[in-house]
Design a protein that fits this description.
This protein is mostly helical and about 240 residues long. It is built from 11 helices and 2 strands; from the N terminus they run H-H-H-H-E-E-H-H-H-H-H-H-H.
Length: about 240
């Protein structure tokens, strides 16, 4: 009987390894296969999906390239569902955001809009939820713009914002916001900084630290909003210089 004309035309063109990788990926993302759990053996996959070992190897390579599984060798080796971490997933998001920015698919204003949506409430939460360890880390990230050199100011600035996100104690805030922050900082944080930029950053960071340490949530949100407004203006200025 002839195949229905409504059949998915892409089904035939999808390589067998890609189809298998998609099926396994769906099981991982649905939770059917849990983090740390061993994937079915080659023999089991062959029996279930009717594919050869070379197809299975390619499918597992594809999943590994997406950091969904880890493969180990030895007697107790095999392929296991990766245990997720905020830092690891955030790195992948950063790559995507950086590519979109490079391709001019998103603007500086759009990136700053996301930061406002996330970092302003995060600062408020940090004022309630921060620990003494968070405060120590924030203090350690404060720098003197008259003494600090270029790379040091960049690193300290990044650390302040990342610690503040962690102090909110919601891993999704860091996961979503950190990539946007790092893309902006790497693109504009080193070059073309207008006069007084780092002095302004230092002043704002010290003010935010004071209100977070005092547990003043409303002031923390207000200070962060002002800080991001200052950054947004500088980034727009640097973006114009970069494209000239």
């Amino acid at each position: 009987m002839p195949e229905s004309s409504t059949a998915d035309p892409s089904a035939k063109s999808t390589p067998a390894y890609a189809a298998l990788a998609t099926r396994l990926r769906d099981r991982i993302l649905s939770g059917e296969l849990q983090p740390g759990e061993r994937l079915p053996s080659d023999t089991e996959l062959t029996a279930e999906f009717g594919v050869g070992r070379s197809t299975i190897r390619e499918a597992l390579r594809s999943l590994a390239s997406q950091n969904l599984i880890l493969t180990t060798r030895g007697v107790t080796g095999g392929s296991f569902v990766a245990v997720p971490s905020v830092g690891h997933i955030s790195e992948h998001l950063e790559t995507g955001v950086a590519l979109m920015t490079t391709a001019d698919a998103v603007t500086v204003d759009q990136l700053m809009e996301v930061r406002n949506l996330m970092e302003v409430p995060a600062a408020g939460m940090a004022a309630f939820r921060r620990t003494e360890d968070h405060l120590d880390q924030l203090r350690a990230s404060i720098f003197d713009p008259t003494d600090a050199q270029g790379p040091e100011t960049f690193v300290k600035n990044q650390e302040f914002h990342l610690v503040l996100l962690r102090a909110a104690q919601n891993p999704l805030l860091e996961l979503i916001t950190a990539p946007v922050f790092r893309v902006l900082s790497k693109r504009f944080g080193r070059d073309h900084a207008p006069e007084g930029f780092w002095q302004c950053v230092d002043h704002d960071h010290r003010a935010i630290l004071d209100v977070v340490a005092a547990g003043d949530s409303m002031s923390a949100m207000d200070m962060m909003r002002r800080h991001l407004d200052h950054l947004g203006g500088s980034y727009r200025q640097m973006d114009k210089l970069r494209t000239q």
